[in-house]
């Protein structure tokens, strides 16, 4: 079974998730924006072997700790899509702008594209390129457990901001309706901030995408 634990990190309460293979205890961390000692304490508590860093996009609250974590543990950084390269290159400037601890620029070991897969232990997750919040944003979907880690594309009752550089509202709506809804109403998603919800619930009640 694929398991996960979501841990809010940074002053922005960003949902960082540990995902792991229950049998092998091999694990990946999605969007380690900061609070690395807290994250590593959870890894130790759960008896996991942390082997990978997966990034949904390049904003500081999601990627700010990735460079240091990769360096400390010699971990590969996987994702996001190469269209977010300028965000990752500018992490040091982002950290100053938003009052974060100094962040290291990140050069992913592997960029991701729509239709790719990532694996942890015996489990594979599908990658969907979902631009709009940022141009290189990706989502990780596990059909096995009907879960999607969607970063800042979609929230319970809201959607991602599009007023940052290279954000685009129409593109974001298209990503949600064309890349997320086909995964099924039953799919529960873990957003970048706030509580979990399901695609079906958001299609019925989210004022930004209701009825789409």
From TrEMBL:
A Pfam family that the UniProt record links to this protein: Lactamase_B
Gene Ontology MF term list: hydrolase activity; metal ion binding
Family annotation (Gene3D superfamilies): Ribonuclease Z/Hydroxyacylglutathione hydrolase-like (3.60.15.10)
Span list, region Disordered: 192-212
Domain Metallo-beta-lactamase: 13-193
Keywords: Hydrolase, Metal-binding, Zinc
Cofactor(s) required, per the database record: Zn(2+)
Chloroplast among keywords: no
InterPro entries noted in UniProt: MBL_Glyoxalase_II (IPR051453), Metallo-B-lactamas (IPR001279), RibonucZ/Hydroxyglut_hydro (IPR036866)
Annotated PANTHER family: HYDROXYACYLGLUTATHIONE HYDROLASE GLOC
Descriptive protein name: MBL fold metallo-hydrolase
Source organism per UniProt: Ramlibacter aurantiacus
């Amino acid at each position: 079974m694929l398991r996960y634990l979501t841990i809010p990190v940074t002053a922005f309460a960003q949902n960082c998730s540990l995902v792991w293979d229950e049998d092998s205890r091999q694990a990946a961390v999605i969007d380690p924006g900061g609070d690395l000692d807290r994250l590593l304490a959870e890894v130790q508590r759960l008896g996991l072997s942390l082997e990978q860093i997966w990034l949904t996009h390049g904003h500081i609250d999601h990627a700010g700790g990735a460079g240091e974590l990769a360096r400390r543990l010699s971990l590969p950084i996987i994702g996001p899509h190469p269209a977010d390269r300028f965000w990752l290159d500018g992490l040091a400037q982002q950290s100053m702008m938003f009052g974060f601890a100094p962040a290291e620029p990140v050069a992913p070991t592997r960029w991701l594209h729509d239709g790719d897969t990532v694996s942890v232990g015996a489990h594979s997750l599908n990658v969907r390129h979902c631009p709009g919040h940022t141009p290189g944003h990706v989502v990780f979907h596990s059909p096995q457990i009907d879960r999607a880690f969607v970063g800042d594309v979609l929230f319970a009752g809201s959607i991602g901001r599009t007023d940052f550089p290279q954000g685009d509202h129409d593109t974001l709506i298209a990503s949600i309706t064309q890349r997320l809804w086909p995964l099924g109403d039953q799919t529960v998603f873990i957003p970048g901030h706030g509580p979990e919800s399901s695609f079906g619930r958001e299609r019925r009640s989210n004022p930004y995408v209701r009825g789409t």
